[in-house]
Automatic annotation (TrEMBL):
<keyword id="KW-0472">Membrane</keyword>
<dbReference type="GO" id="GO:0004930">
    <property type="term" value="F:G protein-coupled receptor activity"/>
</dbReference>
<dbReference type="InterPro" id="IPR000276">
    <property type="entry name" value="GPCR_Rhodpsn"/>
</dbReference>
<keyword id="KW-1133">Transmembrane helix</keyword>
<dbReference type="GO" id="GO:0004984">
    <property type="term" value="F:olfactory receptor activity"/>
</dbReference>
<feature type="transmembrane region" description="Helical">
    <location>
        <begin position="100"/>
        <end position="122"/>
    </location>
</feature>
<keyword id="KW-0675">Receptor</keyword>
<dbReference type="GO" id="GO:0005886">
    <property type="term" value="C:plasma membrane"/>
</dbReference>
<keyword id="KW-0812">Transmembrane</keyword>
<feature type="domain" description="G-protein coupled receptors family 1 profile">
    <location>
        <begin position="43"/>
        <end position="294"/>
    </location>
</feature>
<keyword id="KW-0807">Transducer</keyword>
<comment type="function">
    <text>Odorant receptor.</text>
</comment>
<feature type="transmembrane region" description="Helical">
    <location>
        <begin position="274"/>
        <end position="296"/>
    </location>
</feature>
<feature type="transmembrane region" description="Helical">
    <location>
        <begin position="27"/>
        <end position="50"/>
    </location>
</feature>
<dbReference type="InterPro" id="IPR017452">
    <property type="entry name" value="GPCR_Rhodpsn_7TM"/>
</dbReference>
<feature type="transmembrane region" description="Helical">
    <location>
        <begin position="62"/>
        <end position="80"/>
    </location>
</feature>
<comment type="similarity">
    <text>Belongs to the G-protein coupled receptor 1 family.</text>
</comment>
Length: 314
């Protein structure tokens, strides 16, 4: 069934296959995915609750962490409920506009997450290199403005993806061989020249992810130089400790994201099941790990969680 417009035609729905190649195991694979999703949701909600209720945590680092938690909740919830429905209940069909909405949320909030990590790297740089001026440079107003810029950038840069795809005709094939709608996967079903879309996709990837990684890299080079100049070994260890959790979060996001991005465009010989598993990891593991890493590495949050678990702090 085709729905026609003035300049485009599109199917009423697409078919998401889930994890091709592992059809016989999909039911059981869904259980660890479900556990990871629950950890991501519960962990990030706890982080948000602690930061909201403890006014001593209304500082730049924790405000950025709250933004990261919100982004994680949106990013994981945009794909995991549908993926679990596919793996457990064979609900493979997804409505056309729901698919485009999923494309928008995945790419917009991946951009937002990357931008927040960049802002957190800048926060660590100011805190370690200019500790006496940290509170005057990164005021609450500056933090809110940085968060707003990151959000607007994600929304503005990604919106053309959905607009351009919605104006193009689709081939009769409506099968997407993975568990969620992603820009490149949807683009492969278009029966038209998609060079403009692909070029714009590369532009967004490099102008967002590339820019953010450059800023993060420069920030940590400067941090490393400042830390190595500290006279005390204990001070150096403490400074490294404050950055260790952030570096782990950065690696957890960018490594699978880069693999997925490069495989979509150049990894034609990579087994499809490997690509799809990494694509799912990219959207689920960082939201799951972020609250765990920050909960373990950040004393203030760890102490609040322990007190709450012991019934001393509700």
């Amino acid at each position: 069934m085709l729905a026609s417009g003035n300049t485009s035609s599109h199917p009423a729905s697409f078919i998401l296959l889930g994890i091709p190649g592992l059809e016989n195991s999909q039911f059981w694979i869904a259980f660890p995915f479900c556990v990871m999703y629950l950890v991501a949701v519960v962990g990030n909600i706890i982080i948000l609750h602690i930061i909201r209720t403890d006014h001593t945590l209304h500082e730049p680092m924790y405000l950025f962490l709250a933004m990261l938690a919100i982004s994680d909740l949106v990013l994981s919830s945009s794909t995991q409920p549908k993926m679990l429905a596919i793996l457990w209940f064979h609900a493979h069909e997804i409505e056309y506009h729901a698919c485009l909405i999923q494309v928008f949320f995945i790419h917009a909030f991946s951009s937002v997450e990357s931008g927040i990590l960049m802002a957190m790297a800048l926060d660590r740089y100011v805190a370690i290199c200019f500790p006496l001026r940290h509170s005057s440079i990164l005021t609450t107003a500056v933090v809110v403005k940085l968060g707003a810029v990151v959000m607007v950038r994600g929304l503005l840069w990604v919106s053309p993806f959905c607009f351009m795809v919605s104006r193009m005709p689709f081939c009769p094939n409506k099968v997407i061989p993975q568990s969620y709608c992603e820009h490149m996967a949807v683009l492969k079903l278009v029966c038209a020249d998609t060079r403009v879309n692909r070029v714009y996709g590369l532009f967004v990837a490099f102008s967002v992810g590339g820019f953010d990684m450059i800023v993060i890299g420069i920030s940590y080079v400067m941090i490393l130089r400042a830390v190595l100049r500290l006279p005390s070994g204990e001070a150096r260890l403490k400074a490294f400790g404050t950055c260790a959790s952030h570096i782990c979060v950065i690696l957890a996001l960018y490594i699978p994201a880069l693999f997925t991005f490069l495989t979509h465009r150049f990894g034609h010989h990579v087994p499809r099941v490997v690509h799809i598993m990494f694509a799912n990891v990219y959207l689920l593991v960082p939201p799951m790990l972020n609250p765990i890493i920050y909960g373990v590495r950040t004393k203030q949050i760890r102490d609040r969680v322990i007190r709450a678990c012991c019934g001393k702090d509700l």
